[in-house]
Amino acid sequence: MNKYCIWIGVVLLLAACGKRGPLVAPEALVPAAITDLQVEQKGNRFLVCWSRPGKEEWGGSLEDLAGFKVLRRDVLPPDQDCEECPNAYRQVKLIDPEYLQDVLQFGSRYCMFDSDLLINKTYQYKVVSFEKDGATSKGSNPARRTKLLPPKPPLLSAVKTPESVILHWKTPAEIPAESLAGFSVYRKEANEVMPLTPIARLTADSTSFADPAMEHGVLYFYAVRTLAEVGPDLVESDLSNLVEGKFSLSE
């Protein structure tokens, strides 16, 4: 028996008992809409992230979340654009929280990469969640981004010291000085996915970085992204080559 049948049964029971009170409308028996959808460009791909809703639209706990549908539309010139048109959005990803495959999860936050994109084209995303009985949320907040030509990543090298590893790189020659906004340093351990958040953001004149937070005996892998201003947006390059480093008192 689905929640709509239960809702009708409760209404009839209360009516028969002569009881009155606030009832939850059927359209509120759906997951609450996602409100924190974000899109950013990393290299040649968009990173699309949102948080799992914890409640239904009416405020009750969400117990039967079955998945998400990630939808995307091409943004057209103003005289042609029609967000509300029936075929404006198409589904680019169907996500089962129990089998995430290439979707990343960080606590209650989900992130996926979208690579089927054209340079200088603007795209708009929204996400809907649905329950096991098919009840579907309203669309999330829309998130819009224009695909831009990303900067080149730097070429990375590493010098090991007894207590740290020092990363060195050169600014890619193709990037105009006025466009260069800085560098983002990323770090992971063996068998981990490179995290989406850097351990450091450095200024445009930086050419090296010494990791101050290495643990004894742990092997780390590092990469750096170039950060550039492209029009009004900040865009990161793809990850550089990986280098490794390990803090070991015996070395």
Describe this structure in words.
The protein has 251 residues and is mainly beta. It is built from 1 helix and 16 strands.
Keywords:
mainly beta, 6% helix, four-stranded antiparallel sheet, 16 strands, 2 domains, Immunoglobulin-like, 251 residues
Could you state the CATH homologous superfamily of the largest domain? Answer: Immunoglobulins
Spans where pLDDT lies below 50 across 5 or more residues: 6-16
Number of domains: 2
Distance between the termini: 66 Å
Q: Write the element-wise H/E pattern from the N-terminal end onward.
A: HEEEEEEEEEEEEEEEE
Number of helices: 1
The main β sheet shows up as: 5 strands, antiparallel
Percent range for helical residues? under 10%
Write the CATH fold name of the largest domain: Immunoglobulin-like
In short:
The protein has 251 residues and is mostly beta strands. 6% of the residues lie in helices and 39% in strands. It has 2 domains: 3-146, Immunoglobulins (Immunoglobulin-like, Sandwich), CATH 2.60.40.10; 155-246, Immunoglobulin-like, CATH 2.60.40.
Write the layout of secondary structure elements.
Layout: H1 3-17, E1 38-42, E2 45-51, E3 65-74, E4 90-95, E5 104-106, E6 109-114, E7 122-131, E8 143-146, E9 155-160, E10 165-170, E11 180-189, E12 200-202, E13 208-210, E14 219-230, E15 233-236, E16 243-246
